[in-house]
């Protein structure tokens, strides 16, 4: 038996001043699943979230909760009737209410409120602060209380818009992990908006990558990172190297030998994309490089233009002998070559992506 997704949106669109900022967006989320809506600033993430929450209306498309239609652009269940919890970056606590008062705020059955508040505060590690007021708490503590408050009415769905962006890095990692544990334990379906790929990869069961109002790719973090839909999708997650080529007879010529481009018509310009951590470096042996292996392919000589120590890694920038193009490699930081050193580069062919060049 298949059960309806906890949250489903179908072909949602919304325009402002004649510009489509949400364009035919569909998504579905199961109980206990975290989906991250990831994309650059202004791509339409928050508008999508606001439509689901019911504080913005769509021009077309449907929102369903547990298979029930709650909004189709004409009829809409009001925000408070949707069973949806919200947690936004600027969702401040009520300053005049204690932690207890804040977390109990959305609970209608006051006789059971104390037990529920205590349960949630224990879960977010805030039990001993139950009688404090917001101004007596640190930013991270306030965020935990905000999470407890959002979860108190047992929402089936939680919408989170950059909820951790006000926190410093270390605290943010801890609170993210705690939040995730609590949301999973409560079987809440979560849609989290972020523009940070690191946050999405850390939090998400599924990432929906959004650009110019559209979802350009959906999948598990591992899949999106390792099989990006296009060059921009690859570039969103890390620095990339782009080796340009032109296809002749299903092959393209590069400094690293020929690359297969099956099914690509002759004359098509392509970009071969590789992340800097997938370049290998080897020493120059009096003008000769390492012996090629089938996986690494042909090595190519290059000269170090810049090398930066970055803690656990070094970022080394090269100028290729073949055509003067520039490439970057991320290598363990025990290796920090001097500027001007000739070295040999190899690229992990199984980690390269070949995309037709975008015009
Ligand atoms: N009420 C509105 N009236 C006019 N334009 C709007 C309105 N709300 C949003 N927009 C525009 O729609 C586009 C998408 O905005 P949205 O807030 O959804 O993007 P976002 O991806 O969440 O960005 P950010 O990460 O910066 O919050 C932006 O160009 C924004 O200026």
Automatic annotation (TrEMBL):
UniProt domain ABC transporter: residue ranges: 7-237
Molecular function via GO: ABC-type ferric iron transporter activity; ATP binding; ATP hydrolysis activity
GO-annotated biological processes: quaternary ammonium group transport
EC code(s) of this entry: 3.6.3.30
Pfam families registered for this protein in UniProt: ABC_tran, TOBE_2
Keywords of the record: ATP-binding, Cell inner membrane, Cell membrane, Hydrolase, Ion transport, Iron, Iron transport, Membrane, Nucleotide-binding, Translocase, Transport
Top-rank taxon, per record: Bacteria
Annotated Gene3D superfamilies: P-loop containing nucleotide triphosphate hydrolases
EC class of the enzyme, as a word: hydrolase
Stated name of the protein: Fe(3+) ions import ATP-binding protein FbpC
Gene that specifies this protein: fbpC
